[in-house]
Amino acid sequence: MSRFSRREKFAICGRDRGLELWPLAALGGAVLIPAAIRAEDAGERADGLALVGQLLWRGAFYGAVDGFVLAALPIVIVYGAFDHARFSTRPVASKAGVVVAAFAATLAMTTVYHLGYSDFRSEKITKPLLGNPLWSIPTLATANPIGAPIAHAALHVTAVLRNEDSDTFLPPHY
């Protein structure tokens, strides 16, 4: 990802196209946190070192990887395919078309990924599809691949704190 970001001139830690990544990632996470709290009742959770392990593994690490695979990767692939380096010189309609294509790619990835789990082959699929725009906006708006993983990790950390047995937000899904 680092080599791709340098080649495509993405700013991993800072500004790109005049938009700040960190406030957008924080906003995405801030909106996802209450959504995760409202979506399920509170349940059991670990404490002590077990909670720290759950927060690091199922919350931060898995959440960030999930956000990368479901949102950042498809978005940067589409942006790269449409020559991101010349993005700022495109007409507004062309820019909008690329953003829509990138958003469609992340929705497709989220759908295919979740339908791979039998418990998401129901109305439950709507939850990740409704959450997708919230964790995708930081990367869509800034073309910075780290934004979606940050926002998505906030969702998973909240789920670990709220209910470690969540069958919506936390793996494993069977």
Detailed description of the structure:
Strand 1 and strand 2 (about 20) form a beta hairpin. The relative contact order is 0.23. Helix 3 (about 50-80) packs antiparallel against helix 6. It contains six helices and two strands, in the order αββααααα. It has helices at about 1-10, 20-40, 50-80, 90-115, 125-140, 145-160, and strands at about 15, 20. It has one domain (about 20-160). A two-stranded antiparallel sheet has the order 1-2. It is mainly α and about 170 residues long.
Quick synopsis:
This protein is an all-alpha fold. Helix content is 67%, strand content 2%. The chain has helices spanning 2-8, 21-39, 48-81, 92-115, 126-142, 147-162; strands at residues 15-16, 19-20.
Question: Which keywords apply here?
Answer:
mainly alpha; 174 residues; 6 helices
Q: What's the number of domains? A: 1
Written as H for each helix and E for each strand, in order along the chain, the element string is: HEEHHHHH
Mean of pLDDT: 79
Distance between the termini: 30 Å
Radius of gyration: 17 Å
Runs in which pLDDT lies below 50 for 5 or more consecutive residues are 12-18
Helical/strand content category: mainly alpha
- Biggest sheet layout: 2 strands, antiparallel
How many helical elements?
6
The gross shape turns out to be: elongated
- Secondary structure: number of strands: 2
Name the beta content range.
Answer: under 5%
Order of adjacent strands in the largest pleated sheet: 1-2
Helix share, percent: 55-70%
Question: How is the topology of this model organized?
Answer:
Layout: H1 2-8, E1 15-16, E2 19-20, H2 21-39, H3 48-81, H4 92-115, H5 126-142, H6 147-162
Antiparallel strand pairs: 1-2
